[in-house]
């Protein structure tokens, strides 16, 4: 699949003068709940009403969605409010029912994207549809797997495509429910600038407090839209209560978010160009310094080879990491940043030395 302007046609056709907003409850619970939320969202920036009908739960026994009974409620949402509707589909049966109910947007969840067999099955069931299909990132940070999902749908002759960034699972305890790992959507955008990308701050945060901050970062990274879980009485929600917000709070967030211009012009561009020239000089210095460091690592590698000493020296490596984090902190650089930079440097050093010690 190549980047093509036509990938964003469905979004351009909406002619929005603000980012696309998809909102609605995590799960459709009752007809009354669905319609109440939809009516509160009707006269806002929201264009699409979302509601989970089939809910993939991590462990059995949880609320798994009310199922197909909710589809006629979504039809009513469309008739009464004019909002488009969106549901998650995970198998052929879901696709069939959602298409029969004339749902406008179908999305594949993270637990589906992770499985190419499941994606292929859904793609085959959707073959040739003119519905909008959105693919959430897989649970693990694997860009190829995410793009593979998009490609399977594209190959099934589906042209109204987009992706949803909902963050990635981590074994570490973090302040996020799903770590954003912004470098993945940034790389996706670099490869496919015309594939619409929507951010899902609700699943990234797992709570209400971070939604505004994550949404702003997404807009600053030129995401085309936001999908935010919204409930009339969030605390009573049957699923993901902690991360849902009221329609009123959603409106507040929308009003506070700043949409910036994608490109600078005129004087601002001149100013940026001057600063960018400075960055170019500094980047070149960084490369020269890294190359110098690597030369020393190669010399150490030669000593290790001649004296039969192992490549990895944990104690020294631990000491470097600790020192550099402390030095970095003094210059206002975060621990995460320093650790990732030095881990990459150390790995390259190991690779170079491994080449030396294993050479004949
Ligand atoms: O101190 C060494 O022994 C090195 O080879 C240097 C270096 C590094 O690049 O910082 C590389 C490998 C070791 O695990 C520790 C540190």
UniProtKB/TrEMBL annotation:
Could you identify this protein by its name?
Answer: chorismate mutase
Source organism, top-level taxon:
Bacteria
Keywords attached to this entry: Transferase
Q: Which residues form the Chorismate mutase domain?
A: 266-357
Output the Gene Ontology terms for molecular function. chorismate mutase activity; transferase activity
Keyword Transferase tagged: yes
**What is its EC class?**
isomerase
Gene Ontology biological-process entries? chorismate metabolic process
Q: Which SUPFAM superfamilies match?
A: Aldolase (SSF51569), Chorismate mutase II (SSF48600)
The EC number(s) attached to this protein equal 5.4.99.5
């Amino acid at each position: 699949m190549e980047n093509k302007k036509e990938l964003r046609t469905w979004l351009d056709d909406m002619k929005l003068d603000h980012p696309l907003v998809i909102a609605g409850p995590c799960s459709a619970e009752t007809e009354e709940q669905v319609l109440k939320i939809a009516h509160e969202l009707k006269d806002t920036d929201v264009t699409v009403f979302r509601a989970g009908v089939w809910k993939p739960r991590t462990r059995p026994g949880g609320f798994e969605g009310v199922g197909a009974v909710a589809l006629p409620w979504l039809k009513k949402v469309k008739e009464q409010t004019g909002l488009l509707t969106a549901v998650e589909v995970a198998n052929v049966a879901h696709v069939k029912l959602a298409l029969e109910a004339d749902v406008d947007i179908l999305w594949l969840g993270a637990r589906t994207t992770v499985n190419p067999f499941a994606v292929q099955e859904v793609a085959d069931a959707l073959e040739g549809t003119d519905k909008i299909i959105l693919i959430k990132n897989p649970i693990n940070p694997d860009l190829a797997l995410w793009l593979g999902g998009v490609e399977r749908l594209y190959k099934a002759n589906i042209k109204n495509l987009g992706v949803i960034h909902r963050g990635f699972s981590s074994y570490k305890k973090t302040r996020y429910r799903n770590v954003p790992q912004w470098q993945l959507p940034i790389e996706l955008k670099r490869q496919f600038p015309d594939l619409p990308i929507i951010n899902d701050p609700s699943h990234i945060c797992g709570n209400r407090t971070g939604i505004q901050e994550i949404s702003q970062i997404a807009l600053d990274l030129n995401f085309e839209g936001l999908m935010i879980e919204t409930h009339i009485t969030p605390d009573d929600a049957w699923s993901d209560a902690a991360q849902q917000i009221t329609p009123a709070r959603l409106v507040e967030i929308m009003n506070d978010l700043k949409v910036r211009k994608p490109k600078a012009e005129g004087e601002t561009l001149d100013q940026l160009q001057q600063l960018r020239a400075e960055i170019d000089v500094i980047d070149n210095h960084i490369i020269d310094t890294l190359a110098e460091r690597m030369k020393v690592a190669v010399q150490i590698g030669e000593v290790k080879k001649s004296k039969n000493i192992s490549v990895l020296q944990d104690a020294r490596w631990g000491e470097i990491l600790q020192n550099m984090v402390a030095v970095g902190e003094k210059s206002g650089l975060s621990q995460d940043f320093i650790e990732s930079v030095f881990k990459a440097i150390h790995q390259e050093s190991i690779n170079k030395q491994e080449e030396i010690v294993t050479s004949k």
